[in-house]
């Protein structure tokens, strides 16, 4: 998911395939749920086209304290390509009244933990308040809508890692929709339920330490651009500036150790899809024996993890690795769009290969080839939920979203922005 601070987020395309994915319930049974992509280049699938070789890295076992399993499967609502983990939240300063919530989407394109109110008992999680005494709420804006709810404090545990103190998280949908300001809360529908999201919440673990940063902390920019609102008594909500320590925070940046980045490791899957896939989320980079920086190339990015100097089809684009997007999303008029059944996805008559040159804010450049099969072909098997060659259209030509299909068979690295404390600048790698 891409929040207000970032340019693009296309979780909404997930909804286009709900009718297909809900046909049957499939258990997530580990591994890739199928063969690696290189074994499925049959003539009937390629139809005269070709696909690039699929990457073949296998995730490490999620047995260490700094790891947690990632599952792609039917999940909450049968939405394809949603990677999920389990998260535990506790009231700040205690290990009592802790709650473990499953099916939380792993999203490297956003920052901070957001939980749907219906799956968590919020009574023990205190609402964050401003100096004025007003309750703090947030409207996190996405390309397809928004999430609205209070900011609360919780100690967050993922795998064997725990935040050192209570951090701000968003509770989605715990305020009446009528309290959402008509101006400043984004366009499109409210995504305030698990059904809307296709998950019970969002674990944003991209490169930024908070979800808005200086834009929302500075009163002059917050006046028109803050996604935070002061709500006296939970009503009459008005946009407000919020200091960094009260902004929804990236939990992985607040662990006691292993807090400088994450590695998302997904298994290879068949080019025709797989019923499920199980990967590993690794916390920390170069902090333990199981998390070396073994990327073939790394790219310096802006705070949001974007590679703004990348080039696709002769046009400069902002490229990003986003596990919260369930397909590749980019603009390409040479690719046929699907009919209304799969609106927004590409349905080329034969298998296609496209290349993008990724360029970091440093001098690193690398060409990456991706494969594309017709969404109609892929969705023909309604029991599959993991796809490595699904692609769709993005509005405009300035962004290139390397969504979850890019992650299969790869280790994707995210180095957190630690410049505020004199540490390293953000980077991504694979």
UniProtKB/TrEMBL annotation:
Please give the residue ranges the record annotates as the region Disordered: 37-59
Q: Which Pfam families match?
A: DUF3443
Q: Where is the composition biased (Low complexity)?
A: 37-51
Query: Which residues are the signal sequence here?
Result: 1-29
Q: What is this protein called?
A: DUF3443 family protein
Keyword annotations: Signal
Keyword presence, Acetylation: no
- PROSITE patterns from the entry? PROKAR_LIPOPROTEIN (PS51257)
Key word Signal present = yes
């Amino acid at each position: 998911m891409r929040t207000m601070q970032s340019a693009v987020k296309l979780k909404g395309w997930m909804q286009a395939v709900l009718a297909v994915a809900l046909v049957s319930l499939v258990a997530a049974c580990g591994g890739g749920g199928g063969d690696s992509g290189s074994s499925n280049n049959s003539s009937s699938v390629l139809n005269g086209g070709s696909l690039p070789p699929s990457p073949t890295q296998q995730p490490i076992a999620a047995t260490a304290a700094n790891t947690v399993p990632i599952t792609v499967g039917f999940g909450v609502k049968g939405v394809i390509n949603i990677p999920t983990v389990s998260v535990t939240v506790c009231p700040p300063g205690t290990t009592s009244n802790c709650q473990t919530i499953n099916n939380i989407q792993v999203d490297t394109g956003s920052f901070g933990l957001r939980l749907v109110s219906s799956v968590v008992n919020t009574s023990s999680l205190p609402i964050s308040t401003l100096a004025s005494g007003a309750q703090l709420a947030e409207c996190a804006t996405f390309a397809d809508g928004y999430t609205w709810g209070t900011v609360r404090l919780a100690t967050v545990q993922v795998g064997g890692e725990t935040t050192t103190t209570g951090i701000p998280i968003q509770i989605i949908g715990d305020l009446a929709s009528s309290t959402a300001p008509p101006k400043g809360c984004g366009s499109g529908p409210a995504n305030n339920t698990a059904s809307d999201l296709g998950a019970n919440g969002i674990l944003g673990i991209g490169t930024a330490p908070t979800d808005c940063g200086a834009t929302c902390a500075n009163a002059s920019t917050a006046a028109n651009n803050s996604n935070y609102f002061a709500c006296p008594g939970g009503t009459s909500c008005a946009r407000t500036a919020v200091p960094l320590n009260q902004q929804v925070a990236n939990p992985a940046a607040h662990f006691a150790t292993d807090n400088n980045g994450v590695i998302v490791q997904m298994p290879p899957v068949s080019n025709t899809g797989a019923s499920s896939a199980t990967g590993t989320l690794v916390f920390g980079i170069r902090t333990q024996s199981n998390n070396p920086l073994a990327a073939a190339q790394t790219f310096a990015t802006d705070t949001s993890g974007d590679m703004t100097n990348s080039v696709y089809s002769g046009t400069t684009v902002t490229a990003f690795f986003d596990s919260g997007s369930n397909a590749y999303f980019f603009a390409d008029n040479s690719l046929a769009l699907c009919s209304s059944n799969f609106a927004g996805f590409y349905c080329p008559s034969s298998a296609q290969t496209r290349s993008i040159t990724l360029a970091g804010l440093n001098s690193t450049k690398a060409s990456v080839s991706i494969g594309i099969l017709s969404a109609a072909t892929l969705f023909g098997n309604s029991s599959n939920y993991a796809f490595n060659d699904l692609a769709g259209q993005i509005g405009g030509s300035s962004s290139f979203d390397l969504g979850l299909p890019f992650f299969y068979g790869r280790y994707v690295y995210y180095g957190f922005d630690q410049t505020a404390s004199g540490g390293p600048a953000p980077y991504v790698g694979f």
